[in-house]
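Protocol step 4 of 5: obtain the predicted structure for the target chain.
Materials: sequence only (see below). No template structures provided, no constraints applied. The aim of this step is simply to have a reference model before the mutagenesis design in step 5. Sequence pasted as it appears in the construct record:
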Amino acid sequence: MSRAVEAMIAEQFRRAAEERSCYVPLGDDAARVRRALSRRVAGGSVVSPARGLFADAGEWDDLRPGERSLWIARGLEALHPDWVFCGPTAALAYGIDVSDDLVGRVHVATAPGRHGSNPRTLVRHPVLDGRDPLGGVVDVDGLRVTSPGQTVFDCLRWTDFPRGLGVIDSALRQGVTCVDELAALAQTYATRRRNVERVLAALDWADPRSENGGESIARGRMLLLGYVRPELQVEVPRVVEDGRPYRADYCWVRADGLVILGELDGRAKYVEEELMGGRSIDEVLSDENIRGSRFTLYDVSLMRFGFGVTEHPAEFARVLDEYGVPRRGTPLALPDGAPMIPDWDSLRRNPR
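Step 4 output (structure tokens):
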């Protein structure tokens, strides 16, 4: 490959990366450039995540799954400017938390009767219908996507309850949509779309206080196992030093007065920029350990668990039972809807 072509490709990759997109060769030289890039794909320096789309292999490896999905979507839109993206792909464009399990393929909205999904990279959904009063297409950073409400509504229909909870908690937390809009969509589509009951179930349990998708998914798995809905992001007053209260991911207060704090651990929770606040991963983990030790200044049961255990129902249930988390409808469970905010003064160990 000539130096001129090498320089041109490097520049195109740079421009595409600035636009957070795969590079799509277009124009009179497109066929020649694609052949040159295909040779580099064979050599391992370039990747082609979808037909006609290319990216530098090193840069691609540094992207998270959701970012990769959006790069592919933007590349596909360059090839198909009339396409509309939906479901998890559209949710990513709105900045909604989406489980990595849901972003392996790009989701494209079509009119009823249109097909042609690619099992590896693309799935089409017949959700575009001009008769629907709450539908529509929105441009988000140059990407044509379904409306916010439609996007979240479809995500909830197409995934299970825990992952759906991750989507709706995030959407509500960021103000992308609201419960009323989703309830209206559920009523509109009640007899015209499948799995509307999943939307209603998610609406019943959604909580924008959840700090990230991992915490929401873990909570969804607790609820499926029959445990009491936890209070979220409960403030724990500082004792040793001044400053803002610490917050616990989950909190349960049992009928016998026992207080259980739950903390979701795991590196994935700490690599989100908005949660790190400019700190290194080591600094974040150190701060988390200090925070956990401060909780023990109160007479509480502190349960720490990794996200991986939540994927195994029997094992997760054993952990929750060992720490005494109550199940709904049992004598230790407070009435449904009762606030579970501890009386911290009464729980203080060795009060001054």
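Step 4 remarks: The radius of gyration is 24 Å. The chain has three domains: 3-59, 66-205, 213-347.
Proceed to step 5.
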